[in-house]
Write a structure and sequence with these properties.
about 50% helix; about 15% strand; alpha/beta
C-alpha cells in the first residue's frame, strides 16, 4: 500500500499504518483508558465518536425546539417548566425530557426554581428565521440519508432533488412559479446569514452598479440597497423567480429572467456577485458561468464569489461531510476549496484573485476577482 512511495514518505506511511492497527486493538484501547497520560485523549475520542453516532438524535432535538418555537418563547426570560409544557401541549414528563435534552446540547439552560432559559447555542436562534428555515428544510435531506449507501449508488434523484427543480438537466426557464416558490423562500429567509458578512468584507461604494446572478427574490440586493442607496441594482435569475414579489427590493432594480447555463448575462454592472451559487453546479457549468461573468463585466470590473468553501480551517466537516452529501442528494454540484475556485476563476480570465476576510467563514467565505 505504500510501495509507490520512497524514502521518508514511505517510512511515514508505514508508521501511520502501524499506528492505526495499534489503535484498533481492543487491548491497546483498554490500556489507553487506564494509562494516565493517554486517558484524556481516549475519553475525548470516545466522546467524539459517540457524538458522530448520536448526531441525528441531536439534530432532531433541535428540530423539536424549532417546531415548538422554544427559543422565541424564551426570548423575554426564563419560564417555569409547567408553563412551557402547557404552551407546547405536551405532558409535563415529555416537556421535561425535551428540556433535559436541549440543556445537554447547550440549547437551553436551567435557571433555578424549575425555570428554563436560553443556553449559549439557543440564544442565537431567537428571531433567526434563516436558521430555523434551514433546520425545518433538512427533513428532505434526512429522507435521502436514511440509506446513505443507496444514495451513493443512485447519485441523487431523491426528495432533495425534487426540492431544487433547477437541478435537473432540462431547460429551467420553463419552470412555473409554484415550482420555484419553496426554495426561493428558503434562500430569502437564510440570506441574512451571509449578506452582512459580504457587505462587511467588501466596500461596495467603489462601484456604480451591482449585478446579482441567481439572486432569488432580490433579498441580497435589498440588503445592498439599504447600506448603499446610491448603487444601481440588477437582478438575474430564472424567469419564474424574478417574476415573484420581491419584498424590500427597490423599484429601481432592473430584473432579468434567464438561465445562466443557456443565456448571456446582462451587461452594465461593474460589480457582479455570486452568492451561494457555484457550489450547486458541476465544473462544466461553473466554467460557463464564470466565463459569462467575465464577459458581462467591463474592464476594471470585479466579481465577488461568496459561499461556504471546503477546507475552511476549523470547519472542515462543513465542506466535505455536510455539503458533500447535501449536494449529492441534490443531484449536482460539489464542495470546492478556495484553491479550486481560484483556479476556476483564473481559467475564466479573472486576475488579482484573493480571499476576503469574513467574520464566520463557516457560513460564508469570499473570493474577489478582477477583470483587467
Amino acid at each position: 500500500m505504500a510501495g509507490h512511495l520512497k524514502g521518508p514518505a514511505r517510512w511515514l506511511a508505514q508508521a501511520t499504518v502501524w499506528r492505526d492497527r495499534l489503535i484498533a486493538r481492543p487491548s491497546f484501547q483498554r490500556w489507553a483508558r487506564r494509562f494516565a497520560p493517554t486517558r484524556p485523549i481516549a475519553r475525548r475520542r470516545a466522546g467524539a465518536l459517540f457524538d458522530l453516532m448520536a448526531g441525528f438524535v441531536y439534530s432532531q432535538v433541535l428540530l423539536a425546539c424549532v417546531r415548538l418555537e422554544v427559543f422565541d418563547l424564551l426570548a423575554d426570560g426564563p419560564q417555569p417548566l409547567p408553563v412551557l409544557a402547557a404552551v407546547w401541549r405536551l405532558p409535563e414528563p415529555a416537556a421535561r425530557r425535551l428540556v433535559d435534552a436541549a440543556v445537554a446540547l447547550r440549547l437551553l439552560a436551567w435557571r433555578g426554581a424549575g425555570c428554563v432559559g436560553l443556553g449559549p447555542l439557543g440564544a442565537p436562534l431567537v428571531g433567526n428565521a434563516g436558521l430555523a428555515a434551514m433546520v425545518l428544510h433538512h427533513g428532505a435531506l434526512y429522507e435521502d440519508l436514511q440509506d446513505p449507501v443507496a444514495l451513493l449508488h443512485r447519485d441523487g434523484g431523491g426528495a432533495l432533488a425534487g426540492y431544487w427543480p433547477y437541478a435537473g438537466d432540462g431547460d429551467a426557464r420553463g419552470l412555473a412559479s409554484e415550482q420555484v416558490a419553496a426554495y426561493t423562500a428558503l434562500m430569502a429567509a437564510s440570506q441574512p446569514l451571509v449578506a452582512g458578512e459580504i457587505l462587511d468584507a467588501y466596500d461596495f461604494r467603489r462601484h456604480r452598479c451591482v449585478l446579482d446572478v441567481a439572486g432569488g427574490d432580490g433579498s441580497f440586493l435589498a440588503a445592498v440597497a439599504e447600506r448603499h442607496p446610491a448603487l444601481q441594482l440588477q437582478l438575474f435569475d430564472l424567469p419564474a423567480v424574478v417574476a415573484r414579489p420581491a419584498p424590500g427590493l427597490p423599484q429601481r432594480a432592473a430584473r432579468f429572467g434567464g438561465d445562466f447555463r443557456l443565456d448571456p448575462l446582462p451587461t452594465g454592472a461593474d460589480l457582479l456577485t455570486l452568492v451561494r451559487v457555484v457550489h450547486d453546479h458541476d465544473d462544466d457549468t461553473v466554467r460557463r458561468l464564470l466565463r459569462a461573468a467575465w464577459q458581462a463585466l467591463p474592464p476594471g470590473g470585479v466579481l465577488l464569489l461568496a459561499e461556504p468553501m471546503a477546507g475552511t480551517p476549523g470547519a472542515q466537516a462543513m465542506g466535505d461531510a455536510y455539503f458533500g452529501f447535501y449536494l449529492l442528494a441534490m443531484g449536482r454540484g460539489r464542495p470546492r476549496t478556495a484553491a479550486a475556485l481560484t483556479a476556476l476563476l483564473a481559467e475564466a480570465g479573472f486576475e488579482r484573485i484573493r480571499p476576503l476576510r469574513t467574520g464566520i467563514p463557516l457560513q460564508c467565505s469570499i473570493l474577489r476577482g478582477c477583470k483587467s
